[in-house]
Amino acid sequence: MSLRLDSVFAHIKNARKDLAPGRVIDVGSDHGHTAISCLDEDVALSAVCTDINEGPARICRNNLDEAGYQDRAEVVVTDGLDGVSLKENDIVVITGLGGLNTVDILRRVLAKEDLPPKESLALVLQPQKSIEDLRRFLREEGFHIKDETPLLDSGFHYVVLTAVWEGALDRPDLSDMEYAYFGPVLLGKIKEKDPDTEEYFGYLRRILSVRGRSDPACTEALDILEKILN
Predict the structure, then answer these.
(1) Among 24, 30, 52, 105, which one has the highest count of C-beta atoms within 10 angstroms of its own C-beta?
(2) Torsion angle in degrees (nearest 10) through CA of 59, 63, 65, 71
(3) Per CATH, domain 3-170 is 3.40.50.150
(4) What's the pLDDT tens digit per position in 25-50?
(5) What are phi and psi of 63, to 5 degrees?
């Protein structure tokens, strides 16, 4: 797998340590490699893979079958988690989608009447963009971000995060801008001079500088970042 998916898998394994055995649900699963890794290493008892398109779902099904998981993996052609009922001890994985798309998927599933207790779930997320909107949503919904991993893979910067529901405001000592743009865990890592976080924050500095030309919120975030880095 790629460095990005390796990091996603590491987050899934760590999230399972705080849950009983259960499923992994991979949204937009593409070729199913994450689900196969989870089943190979007994990180999940079973897997549900979803994709909005028939083609990738068919490839995913074939890969799961070839790996010997005909009876332990389900592939569903659907938008996000529509038609999928969550169960206790599920780890929901949403990677490779935009932050706003991820928020939309989570908002819809969290509104379902048959939702299990939120504290019995874990979320492993890797948005392609708009991570600030995703962090805001998680915080507003009572989720706490337990881990964040910045990485550079094939020239692209990513952040993988794990969130669990605790029903209270995460890190009330942080402002909305600090929490949303820089992340509660990454703010700790930058204080510890973690090299991967330093590289990622350097990337954020460049991106916010460009976006600040047309977005006052990015200018405000950049001012905060300069104080953090200096």
Answers:
(1) 24
(2) -90
(3) yes
(4) 999 988 899 999 999 999 999 999 99
(5) -65, -40
